[in-house]
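Justification of computing resources. Each target in the renewal requires a structure prediction run like the one illustrated here; the chain below, 422 residues long, is used simply to show the kind of job we budget for.
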Amino acid sequence: MQATFKNSAAVTLLLMLLLLATVDISVPYDVSRGISREASSSQHEENFNDTQSKQQISAFLQNPDYWIQQGYNTYAEPSTNTMTAEVTVREGEKYESIQEAFDAGYTCLFLKKQKFNITDPIVPPKEDFYILGNGAEITATEPVSTILEIRNLRYAHLDGLVFNGNGLAQKCIDASRPRGQVPVHQIRNCKIMGAILANIDFTGCEDSLIFNCWIDGRKANDTPDAITLYGVKIGEFSDGYVTGGQINLVHCLLSFHRNADIFAKNIAQLKLANCLLASKTEWSPCLEAQLILEGGSGEGSIQPIVEIANCWVENGQGGNVPNILVRNQRISKLTITGGIFYTDNSPNIYSSLSPCAETVTIISALFEHNRNYNGYNIVVPAQKLVSVGNTYNWDGIDKTCLTEYLIFDRDSQEIETRTKTS
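Resulting structure tokens:
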């Protein structure tokens, strides 16, 4: 039953949500060079599915260098400007290979810009190591399990590097950890591409950061062939692998992955801010979603808390899978603030679980699919849903699968609510 919203306490809550909705949450770049809701929101609110926008995005996806450089300019300087390396590694120096420098006892390396070919995983022997660079590329030239093996180290800091799995490495960076160990890693200003299973495996990496990175499922920029299953993998497909802390992705671009840009299971908290998730069905017919979320099962399992702020998640023409998929086991909370979500012939957010989440909160975002798609934008059987200040093109929220809700969006004529007592 729908009821007119009269309760004063609920009105107070709504006013607080509306205040949040007025905050400038736009992503601060032009889409031809980054993302800009200021420059494009009016166009997209009317009809995101136009040729000009798609051409701009396509052109942007061919320019990874701009993405990372813009992050430098906007957020921070690279570590090479603020840190002094112990040793320089390059052809002609005393140490020409990364592993040799680590084996000699150095823990802070600077790689000069060149290609470092590897035939075995690089395994730093000590905790708290740094690899800095200004575009040095580390490329697999033979089949390997991973390019960088840091599963048994608690702190890694990578900055200004290119990791290329080249279709030969199962993973570019393998930081997966068994339960009970607490690594804290930072990957900054890097391009990570071309692995087979996952470009980054952060399973078990509590309180770690991926910042200003281009994560790509191709092994070269000039081909649309998606070869990597997952851009960032957090969690195992079986039970018992728990990530008890928080994983943060800030100002990252993920694209051209076969199954998903991000797979997150059995994690305490996942935060995405100012990210572009752009893998598409047209590049991979086996794409399941840009973001796959799963709660855990078994002993010590976790229901994830997921926060998404100011992100652009776009499947493209012919896209027939959701932008966000909650499957297998329910999550705790999904909070979306701002951003643009587009797919063609599918809900933007979907789950067949009932319930799939305890709470879903969506504020001041744009969701769109094909005008001729006969379905809803949001199909999430949550226990509680709050939707304020959003634009839904075209059929909005499936309210039949919700236990309780409060909805007051751009095209709403009145506040809609349902409570257990209404």
